[in-house]
């Protein structure tokens, strides 16, 4: 119950952090915000009785008396309805009305304030390389081209004449006979 009671603080802390990001010019790309909004809105729209937060209450230990189990389930449902849902609705409202309109239209980390310095810093921090973003991007493009070429060769070896996306769909459907 204590954890459920803290869920509104979780949302409030994230909203405060995002407001700081708005003030400092550090926002997520709009398409990321849109992807974040989908599950958040779905959570708001889920009936309380079906909320995933209630799953731990579905099978309480037999050492808890049935009446106490019912009381705990009811209390958890009340917390979700009275505390969690309003916090989730506030988060959706904030995301739609404040954050999404100010979200970046680009994906690149270099588009953030100080991004030309920040992006190489992140590369050094999270990898073992001293390559530049441009070098890493070139490697990525080369690898995508190489892999795509291999995929096309495999598709053609089966006699498939469509696109790679169509080939992948055919593989999923089991309608392609791959050579041994």
UniProtKB/TrEMBL annotation:
Family annotation (InterPro entries): DUF885
Q: What is any Pfam family matched here?
A: DUF885
Q: Which domain of life is it from?
A: Bacteria
Protein name, entry field: DUF885 family protein
Species for this entry? Tsuneonella flava
Q: What's the source species' lineage? A: Bacteria, Pseudomonadati, Pseudomonadota, Alphaproteobacteria, Sphingomonadales
